[in-house]
Amino acid sequence: MDRFNAMRVFTRIVELGGFAKAADSLQLPRASVTILIKQLEAHLGVQLLQRTTRQISLTLDGAAYYPRCVRLLADLEETEAVFSAARHNPKGLLRVDMPAGVGRLIVIPALPQFTARYPLIELEIGLNDRPVDLIREGVDCVLRGGSSLDDSLVARPLVMLDQVTCASPGYLQRHGTPQCLADLEGHEMVEYVSSHSGKRFGLEFVVDGQIQPINLPKHVAVNSADGYLAACEAGYGLVQTPYYHVARQLKEGNLVEVLREVPPPGMPLAALYPPHRQLSRRVRVFVDWMVELCAQPGNGFVKEHSGR
């Protein structure tokens, strides 16, 4: 029995929640996965996984064994990278998750830079506005905006996203264009609702260095970034969103920025990954590349002529 291979299979079963998913992920026959786990349990003399017809769960021994496996496998990967060509030309599968807008509008268009530099890395990119469970879903790294981040993950700040307040031309024709916060009386907003926590978000403005929240009446609330903008374009009120998400609509005149003198607070964007992945060469080079991308002029994350 190849113990390291068996440990890799075991950790992937835990992360993905099933034998079949682990087999597909590792491109192994499902029978081989079952045999390896049986051999590993026989070698250790304990049962690691509790199997039922509906789910797989860790036994107490399995729960104690899992984090040790994760650390050993990460150490093995890093040790091999130090003494192999992988140190300079890392290879293998890298699973990354990011907000749909960030991926579609900025990261994926720039991705040829990364794949040209690291041609042996295979990327699997998830585009989600929902938080993902990195361990359970087998994700190596995520990009996330906002200040509420998971303390159990390593976070590397990337950039402070410019945000804008905007509305459709039709809405502004009906309600007028606000020139200051006092002009917001009689206006409406589109409310954003977190699909994960259910938290509702109104508007926020930076006034004399302080954040001033303002809630306006609404007819529509949505729980996705694309739906949020669609409701704004349909004329349902003011929205606040990262600049990159509306750069095209602003340029084409489908949306109009308002209240530039009292902008929304910036939104921090960070790369997050589990502590056991911080030694992974694949994760490290991808995060380093994201830092480079965020520092490039005209990267789309900040407003043009913003003075930054």
Molecular structure report:
The structure is a single chain. With 308 residues, the protein is an alpha+beta fold. The protein folds into three domains: 80 residues, Orthogonal Bundle (Arc Repressor Mutant, subunit A), CATH 1.10.10; 102 residues, D-Maltodextrin-Binding Protein, domain 2; 96 residues, D-Maltodextrin-Binding Protein, domain 2 (3-Layer(aba) Sandwich), CATH 3.40.190.10. The chain is built from ten helices and 15 strands. The longest helix has 23 residues. The N and C termini lie far apart (57 Å).
Strand order of the largest sheet: 4-3-5-15-6
The beta-strand count equals 15
For the record, the CATH architecture of the largest domain stands as: 3-Layer(aba) Sandwich
- The low-confidence parts are none
Write down the Rg: 24 Å
What is the CATH topology classification name of the largest domain?
D-Maltodextrin-Binding Protein, domain 2
Main sheet?
5 strands, mixed
Keywords: DNA-binding, Transcription, Transcription regulation
InterPro entries: LysR-type_TF_proteobact-type (IPR058163), LysR_HTH_N (IPR000847), LysR_subst-bd (IPR005119), WH-like_DNA-bd_sf (IPR036388), WH_DNA-bd_sf (IPR036390)
Organism: Pseudomonas migulae
Pfam families: HTH_1, LysR_substrate
What structural keywords apply?
D-Maltodextrin-Binding Protein, domain 2; 3 domains; 3-stranded antiparallel beta sheet; Arc Repressor Mutant, subunit A; alpha+beta; elongated; 308 residues
